[in-house]
Design a protein that fits this description.
alpha/beta, OB fold (Dihydrolipoamide Acetyltransferase, E2P), Ribonucleotide Reductase Protein R1, domain 1, six-stranded mixed sheet, five-stranded mixed β-barrel, 9 helices, 25% helix
Amino acid sequence: MRGRIIKGIAGFYYVETAGDCIYECRAKGIFRRAGVKPIVGDYVEIEVIDSENFVGNITDVLPRRNSLIRPPVANVDQAVVLFAIVKPDPNYVLLDKYLITMKQMNLPVIICFNKQDIATAQEAMELERAYGKCGYKVLFLSVRQESGIDELKELIRGKTVALAGPSGVGKSSLLNLLVPDAGMQTGELSRKIDRGRNTTRHSELFLVKELSDENTQTFIIDTPGFTSLELRDIETQELKDYYTEFEEFENSCRFAGCQHISEPDCGVKNALSLGALSKVRYDNYRLIYDEQKGRRPEYTKKSKGR
């Protein structure tokens, strides 16, 4: 029998099959020996060992179109990266790391900034200036007031969507709006640290009934919120390729393979000085570049001279 993993908790996998039947399954030992771990979003083959109580074993994991490491999800068509405009203030470096991770998988991204209802126009404008030309669709939302939600719905219709972002930005609230019967806890924002309590403890796939019919299905995979993210399998010299807006200025660089860090006559740095590139994005690039080289993120000219 074939199905799709919609949730995985503590070694148990919940597999939805035709007819909306959900089987609680274990993965056979052959997967552990082969170093394969089923993840949410996987299409799998199962054997039924108790049809009355809907219990089975996963016997095969079908080939994946793609997969993300963190969060661990498979067969995704679209990523929605959600951050808040305020409360909590956006961590720009973390946002860029999300974008880089998705680009590694050739996964289209929609950037959503939530809490427009409590942010000032200036705060929203700063984010628009920083990310409006970075090569991704950018939406400003108020989940509380349901502003901007209709446009988002049309952009995700018919897709399997990974909803990602840090804690406290409204991911669970957005999911509850899209999937009213999801029963997710939204949690209460921690005033002490001005950061959300992580109310999502595992990845889970939900059918968005409003955007689905017998021919087209829309799924949302809600994922745990992270406050940090480690980039993997990216060499420092490759990092610039993840900043799409750099490309149009690289032909003006004196040196082929310019890293846009300390090289003279750099087209990217010249564009930055003229205001044609986002200083936020470029500063993020420098910080992440230093991290990938094993240096402190707080690297400065002063520390360089030591």
